[in-house]
Structures are given as C-alpha cells and as structure tokens.
Amino acid sequence: MVFSSSVFEVKKNVFGFSKIHDTVVFNPFEGQIDTSKMMKRLLLKAIEKGVLVLNNCLVNDFVETGTGVKIETNLYDFSCRKLCIATNGFAAKFIKEPIQPARAQVLITDPIDNLQIRGTFHLDRGFYYFRNIHNRILLGGGRNLNIKGEETTHFGLTQQIQTELEKLLYEVILPSKDVGIAHRWSGIMGVGPQKKPIIKSLSSNVYCGVRLGGMGIAIGANVAKEMVDMVNLD
Ligand SMILES: Cc1cc2nc3c(=O)[nH]c(=O)nc-3n(C[C@H](O)[C@H](O)[C@H](O)COP(=O)(O)OP(=O)(O)OC[C@H]3O[C@@H](n4cnc5c(N)ncnc54)[C@H](O)[C@@H]3O)c2cc1C
Question: Taking the domain 35-99+193-230, which CATH number applies?
C-alpha cells in the first residue's frame, strides 16, 4: 500500500463552482509547489556545484567524435565527453523516438480579495487545470480544442483557447467575481503514445531523459537521476 488512507473521496462542491456536478472527487495527497522557487533553488544548486549555465545558446547539432561529442550552437562550437539531452518536447530535433511537442496555454488573474479557493483542480479528463497561487487563480488547458494545432514547438496564444479559458474562469470557477487577467503565456510539453518518459543511452557518449508527458515537475528529478546514473565517466 502506497498511501495511508484512501486516495479519492467524493465531496460536496464547497468551492462555489458553477455549472458542475454537485460533488467533486477529492484527493487529499495532491500538493502545490511554487515553481519559481523551485527553478531559483535549482539554479543556485547548479551554480554551487560549479555547473556552467549558458543562456540563449541554441544547439543546432552534435557530432560524435569517438572520444566525446562536438556541440554546434548558434554562438560557438564546443566539445564534451558526454552529452545528456534533456530538451523534452523539443527533443525530436535530435532523437528518432516517438516524441510530440504539446503546447499548453495558461492565464493568471489579478489578485482577488478574499479568495476562498485553495488547492489544485482538474477538469474534463485533465485537459484543464487550475489552482490558486496566493490570492490569484492560475488556469491552463484547452489543448483538446485543437490537438493538431497545439502540436508545436512555437510558443504562442490562440483566440480559440484563450476565449474558452476565460469562459471557464468567469462562468465556472469565479462566477460572481469581476476580476481581470494579469498575464497569459504558453509552455511546451513533450508527449507520446505512452505516458512514460524515454530515459536511455543513445550511444556510448550520448544519453537522453525526455518526453515527461506533462508530469516533469513531479517526475523530472527522478528522470534526471536515472539518466545521469547511466553515464559512465571511466
Ligand atoms: C502549462 C504547463 C503546466 C504544467 N503543469 C505541470 C504540473 O502540474 N505538474 C507536472 O508535474 N508537470 C507539469 N507540466 C510539465 C512540466 O513543466 C514539464 O514536464 C517539465 O518542465 C519538463 O522539464 P524538462 O527540463 O525536461 O524540459 P523543459 O522544461 O521543457 O526544458 C527544456 C529546455 O531545453 C531548451 N531547449 C530546447 N531545444 C534546445 C536546443 N536545440 N538548444 C538549447 N536548448 C534547447 C528549452 O529552451 C528548455 O529550456 C506543465 C507544463 C506546462 C507547459
């Protein structure tokens, strides 16, 4: 048994959501994290360990030299002994594995006085996701409205999906609130026929840990560990 008590429980909709069933399925074990704090900590940890982070440096290609790998970028070329590919939804550029990019569009509201909604919520088979972050609502999803169109590595927003997100926000999540939208953005996930990451050695010097299936915040650290454990530096 993994959990100490039952994972799912049917509860009354006490959140004030409109146009939904009277009850919701509640999971007491699902948590929230502040991903900006997570990224800040990760960067600090990397710097502490002496990892050199090269920003704004696009890898165009790599060539195996026998003893290592030559990396060709938009800025310069450099060589390394081992290459770990962790470009997730962008990985099809380098790897012949079933990996599709999947864009997810998001919005966040202005601060809301007296916001009672606390937690993370999923709707419509997981195609929509929302949560409070402090006193705002962050809402994303709607990829199912245009699956093909959202199979892209280009960041961007579409009228169709943003309109649907707003409809959901104003009609279902916050039906009686007059609140503005502070910011909108998109991110690229890596998905495929199986909801399972691809962690493997592609040659004696090249490895990958990709296709995190929209679960990389939860499973990313383990995927990275499994990948680097394969690297043989002898
Ligand atoms: C809107 C949204 C909501 C999500 N919500 C959740 C959630 O609730 N829970 C959860 O577990 N996961 C969630 N995810 C998924 C999670 O964010 C990803 O699985 C995770 O970020 C993957 O991490 P990664 O480091 O493998 O890839 P990424 O974070 O995508 O990083 C890949 C990096 O590679 C860089 N790159 C790509 N190509 C090149 C190149 N040629 N040269 C140089 N650099 C390159 C990219 O710029 C990027 O910085 C969400 C994703 C999105 C978009």
Answer: 3.50.50.60
